[in-house]
Sequence to fold (223 residues):
Amino acid sequence: MKLLLIEDDKRLSEHLTQNLKDHGFLALNLYTNDEISNILKSNLVFDFILMDRLLNNFDTKTILPLLRQKWPSAPIIVLSAINSPNERTDVINLGADDYIGKPFSSQELIARMKALLRRSANPVGNYIHVGNVVIDFMGRVISVGSKTENLPSREFTVLRTLAIDPNRIWSKDDLLDYVWGHTAHVETNVVESTIANIRKKLEELGATITIKNLRNAGYWIAK
Fold:
């Protein structure tokens, strides 16, 4: 499996390359903005993209849409040490599929990569049906029949996260990390209040689904 690795820390890049090779990924390493420009003009095909958030002070977030356009089916994970509560939401909205804060373990990275590859094998497209609810990823709205509801960014991201992988139970900490970012200075009850808001809106729409939770386990979509 061909992987594009964009990382200016050569020591980290070499370490990742070896670990990824052990799991069947053959990495092409890029270290500079010029190398990125050249690869975007090439005819090479990649199955996965790992990208550092800053590359020699170059903001790689600006090229996320170009990477997504060039390799639309390749999952993209952004690696970053930037401490911003909105960082994860920004990069995902620009085309990334996941975001991992530095420092991170290689085991966690590879596990997330494999999870994304499983999802990409069965892409959800621009919208999905869950029960009688249509979740529109492009318009960021949910609808039941003729009734529609625009959700705030975080509420929509939580619902989308639960809906895309309905067999997974997401713990409160997992949702905090994935949606708000591990560096976000928020209280853990923000997950509970966000879920409560989504439940209320689903009920008002007449949805046949709801979000269930089990203490000490997590949240999932129930039909």
